[in-house]
Amino acid sequence: MTDQARSAESEIPGKPTSASRTALSHIMTAVDTNLYGTGHGGVIMKLVDDAAGAVAGRHSGGPAVTASMDEMVFLEPVRIGDLVHVYAQCNWTGRTSMEIGVRVMAERWNESTPAQQVGSAYLVFAAVDAEGRTRPVPPVLPESAMDERRIQEAQIRRTHRLARRRAIKELRESRAAEGIRD
Ligand SMILES: CC(C)(COP(=O)(O)OP(=O)(O)OC[C@H]1O[C@@H](n2cnc3c(N)ncnc32)[C@H](O)[C@@H]1OP(=O)(O)O)[C@@H](O)C(=O)NCCC(=O)NCCS
């Protein structure tokens, strides 16, 4: 059974993507710069994690922790004064985890042009209870063809994440079995 089918069989009622979709905005200021005077990637990553965390909390109806962040892409530099908008939505749900997709847009402080995409990322959050134990999440219900595509792409990323983790674990175990210590 696929993860999505498993999620869909959950007894928890599903929630549509629109129920937890979130936007977060921030003006880049002098404290947000890197050594070169443009926006610091870590500041953008925190905004991405904050927005994704809000979506994960709203979708799962409680606390959720970041399990992984991958494919963080910086497409264009953000400049000081730019207004940064971070859009996040739940792309996919497993049993206790959710993939949140995030798009980062910048409105240039000195240009009246449309906002430009400057980055994107995919994060996996695990829903947890008060003791930090994982708990089941509602299946996400797609509302558009784009949502359907995002579920399918998230499932591909999930398959690759699990395969990569398993391959690295097996490699380490086989090296340890050969007595290699590193
Ligand atoms: C994330 C965490 C709860 C997972 O705990 P665990 O004991 O490994 O639990 P599980 O193996 O049951 O994994 C729970 C779910 O998360 C997924 N998951 C766990 N680690 C993952 C990873 N690195 N990448 C992608 N998914 C992951 C699992 O596939 C599972 O999903 P599913 O239930 O939908 O199939 C645990 O590792 C943790 O608490 N990490 C710290 C999180 C944190 O503090 N984040 C903030 C950083 S300061």
TrEMBL record:
<dbReference type="InterPro" id="IPR033120">
    <property type="entry name" value="HOTDOG_ACOT"/>
</dbReference>
<dbReference type="InterPro" id="IPR040170">
    <property type="entry name" value="Cytosol_ACT"/>
</dbReference>
<feature type="domain" description="HotDog ACOT-type">
    <location>
        <begin position="18"/>
        <end position="131"/>
    </location>
</feature>
<dbReference type="GO" id="GO:0052816">
    <property type="term" value="F:long-chain fatty acyl-CoA hydrolase activity"/>
</dbReference>
<comment type="similarity">
    <text>Belongs to the acyl coenzyme A hydrolase family.</text>
</comment>
<dbReference type="GO" id="GO:0006637">
    <property type="term" value="P:acyl-CoA metabolic process"/>
</dbReference>
<keyword id="KW-0378">Hydrolase</keyword>
<dbReference type="InterPro" id="IPR006683">
    <property type="entry name" value="Thioestr_dom"/>
</dbReference>
<feature type="region of interest" description="Disordered">
    <location>
        <begin position="1"/>
        <end position="21"/>
    </location>
</feature>
<protein>
    <submittedName>
        <fullName>Acyl-CoA thioesterase</fullName>
    </submittedName>
</protein>
<dbReference type="GO" id="GO:0005829">
    <property type="term" value="C:cytosol"/>
</dbReference>
<dbReference type="InterPro" id="IPR029069">
    <property type="entry name" value="HotDog_dom_sf"/>
</dbReference>
<dbReference type="Pfam" id="PF03061">
    <property type="entry name" value="4HBT"/>
</dbReference>
